[in-house]
Amino acid sequence: MYTETYQVPLNADNNETESTPKSQSLTAKISNYLRWAGTLLIILSAISFMLQGHENMLPSYRYWIALGFTSLLCGGGLICAYVFNETKGARIFFGLGTAFLTVQTSQVGSMIYAYLNGQQALQPKYAWLQFIDVSPTVIALDLGLTAVLLVIVSYAGFSILARKHLKLLLSAFVISNALLMLPIREAHSIAATIGGLFLFLRYIEQQLHQDRTMQLLEGLAARLIISLPLFIMIGRSLLHPASFLLAVIGGAIIATYLLCDIKRYTQSAMILYIGQLIGTISALSVWLIIVDEFFNDVQGLALLMLPLAMVLFGLSFVVSYHAKLYRFVSSLLAVFLTYEAMVDGLDFAPIFALITGMALTVSGLKTREKVPFFTGHICFASGFLFYCRYAVDLYSAAPWLSAIALGLFVILFSSYLESREKKIVQKFKLYFHELKSWA
Questions:
Q1: What pLDDT does residue 45 have?
Q2: pTM score
Q3: Of 110, 175, 398, 419, which one has the greatest count of Cβ atoms within 10 A?
Q4: For every residue of the chain, which 3-state class applies, written as one string?
Q5: Are 373 and 228 in a shared domain?
Q6: 393 and 351, same structural domain?
Q7: What does the pLDDT read at residue 129?
Q8: What's the whole-number mean pLDDT along residues 398-408?
Q9: Residues 129 and 53 in one domain
Q10: Residue 355, domain extent
Q11: Are residues 46 and 168 both part of a single domain?
């Protein structure tokens, strides 16, 4: 039996089937570009509204314009979701609306603070950032609206961005915005609030990062939104008189983020390297700020600078590059500073030399590096020799008693060497062989 076969021309149907994916991919690219352009335009417009062009506007009007802006964003999200049946635009609109809520909570917090403190309130020198002469009725109304919107809009925003972690994100966002509305502007109080909020959000961030879905664009956006109140609080604190506590907490936050947390977001060698450099400077500057604040008139600079060597040595176990160089520099710095403290006859210098020596020796054993190991021996020996003067004083007070004790020790030590000669020689060989293999 004869069976007739047909072959489909390659150029006929394939052209039709391939044209559709190409046109779809081109349309998707154009849509993505338009979304990014629209998002950037909205963000820039919001920043422009907050920074210029409304100096003569009443504080209550600023809040209502911000409220209308948030409502407009949420309306755009509803149109995308229910009219166009499109979720990408809805995520963008509700994400921007949720983010812009922090502006409203900051405004309400400024109103409450200005009302409670009156003429004693710390106001920034820029008139368009001052919220004064607002009636308590308007403040109460704004506070109620903000509380309602904070729950509703953030619930919708996080539902569409990361429904899996909705409860955690919503709780963190509400708590952060509640702290943002606290009527405090004093340097020490706001610094302590910033430090506590940073630790809280960092704990939340570490939990969220363990989920791979939260590493996608929507998850990253949700994680960024819950951190916006912290960023606004930090920026707002810079408009008021600074304090050493704020500088210390700010330096610690920068160092923690650039040395530890940035590794979760990028693996770029250049970014990590620059971040490591800035983070190291920030970490070292924290102790310098503390010294300048509390120990400015205290003698003994060597002991005051010794913690710098400790900080640098600790950072060697966190940094991504030149960890061995960090330990090398910090070990030499520790030897130099302890020697200077011993020469200057500073109090507690011998104790610090013994502690530093033991710490460096143990670290050298763990890292298998010669420089920390031997510098630790030097520091320990310097502290030990300092206390040997008490043995000299004892000998000068009772030379016959010291001579007897020394004779007994020499006889016992010689007997020990003779009885365990092979084991001692073998251990010394292993010791030097191990040192040769160290870096």
A1: 75
A2: 0.77
A3: 110
A4: CCCCCCCCCHHHHHHHHHHHHHHHHHHHHHHHHHHHHHHHHHHHHHHHHHHCCCCCCCHHHHHHHHHHHHHHHHHHHHHHHHHCCCHHHHHHHHHHHHHHHHHHHHHHHHHHHHHHHHHHCCCCCCHHHCCCCCCHHHHHHHHHHHHHHHHHHHHHHHHHHHHHHHHHHHHHHHHHHHHHCCCCCCHHHHHHHHHHHHHHHHHHHHHHHCCHHHHCHHHHHHHHHCCHHHHHHHHHHCCCCCCHHHHHHHHHHHHHHHHCHHHHCCCCHHHHHHHHHHHHHHHHHHHHHHHHHHCCCCCCHHHHHHHHHHHHHHHCCCCCCCHHHHHHHHHHHHHHHHHHHHHCCCCCHHHHHHHHHHHHHHHHHHHCCHHHHHHHHHHHHHHHHHHHHHHHHHHHHCHHHHHHHHHHHHHHHHHHHHHCHHHHHHHHHHHHHHHHCCC
A5: no
A6: yes
A7: 63
A8: 70
A9: yes
A10: 321-397
A11: yes
